[in-house]
Amino acid sequence: MGRSGFFYFLKVLVMLGGATAIAFLLFLKVYVYAAGLFLLFFFVSYQWFRAEQKLVNHVLDFSEAVRYRDFTRRFAVNRVKSVEGKLFTAFNQINQVYKQISIDKEIQHQYLNKVINMLDSAIIFYQSDTGKVIWINDAFKQLFKTPHLGNIAGLTKRHQDLYEKTIHMKTGRQQVDTANSAVGKIKLLMHSSEFDTQDGNFRIVVYQDINEAIDETETKAWHKLLRVLTHEIMNSIAPISSLAETLHDRLEQGHREEDIEDLKVGIYTIKRRSEGLLQFAKSYRLINKVDQPNFDEIQLKVLFENIYQLLEPTLLQKNIDLDIILKDTRLVLRADVNLVEQVLINLLLNAIEAVKQVDSPYISLAGINRDGYTIIKIQDNGCGMPADIQEQIFTPFFTTKKSGTGVGLTLSKQIMLLHKGNLFVESEEGKGSSFILQFQP
Prior knowledge:
The structure is a single chain. The protein is of the alpha+beta class. It has helices at residues 3-27, 31-67, 83-117, 138-143, 160-168, 211-252, 260-287, 300-317, 337-354, 387-390, 408-418, and strands at 122-127, 133-136, 174-181, 184-197, 200-209, 296-299, 321-325, 332-335, 362-370, 373-380, 422-428, 432-439. The chain is built from eleven helices and twelve strands. A hairpin with a 2-residue loop joins strand 9 and strand 10. Helix 1 runs antiparallel to helix 2, helix 6 runs antiparallel to helix 7 (260-287) and helix 9 runs antiparallel to helix 11. The longest helix has 42 residues, at 211-252. The model has no long low-confidence stretch (mean pLDDT 77).
């Protein structure tokens, strides 16, 4: 039993003793002493009651302060070892702990606020059920000219389209869309996530302006295209121009009968190279005229079998092993069968070309489902490609083949983009290459 417990026990004994004494005096009919002892007993009990009530009021005051998160109050401790002193000491310690927690929380909040406000991406945090906006960062305010937003529905006043896209976008998925902003119509990469707390369901949406990145990428692509176009056109025009000048000089000087044959050969050469330029222009037009996909359900098993039957004679003739890997024979792809076949044939022909100088030529055609995406992978053990070549292979008209047009991979990439998918390459010199077709779920 502690010291405070001992004092409470002593008080109870005193009260019992006083009550017994008063009863005994009344039994003896000593009413004057009984009345005096009763008054004394009442006074002491009242003082004890007041002290206890005072402590209770202190506890109530402290609980009220905790309720309103007021931890600034400090309780004066006069007697450390008394019940009141111990209680006040405990209150002060609790206040100090909560004050430190509050300071740490405020520092963390300010730190987080500074970090997120430094981001270029616009961010909004709101309650899903009520639409109440908890927080928006500076990038959001600047991009959409919205200095304050109390409820997500408030976006309808200035950005009705942004509100609709935000409300209806799927959680956990990225989407690219256009929206009006302070700088006009822009392209946004949007991503949202949700989480639940005891206060309800909350949603965070991030908007990233990708106009600048797209413009930069397009500029680089155009630079690459112009370099290739310039190279190809100059390679054709320079000899034509030189030959035409030579023929012109010979005609100016007069010609003999035996020169007619040379003139015919020169004119034929100009004609052939001009036709080459026309074919080059037709290839360029072909890149820009890929039809929109006609989507249908395709079994990868059937697709691979059709491709193999088509290329089997070539593979046998060149003694190339083609391994088809398809663990799930029920795997289905939603795509345009004709366009996808065109891509696969082009990539397999490239692989056949890549392994022609390898001792044991090998190509694999695999189909898998990974994280909801349907993946088709074509891998070879050919010569591989250096990094600088890999960066340019999808550029129109870029080719490392002497007889190539540089159109096949560009068409394949465009077809995959029309399927909302993509085409990637992984390669290492001397170790072969892999082309990966990724289709959206």
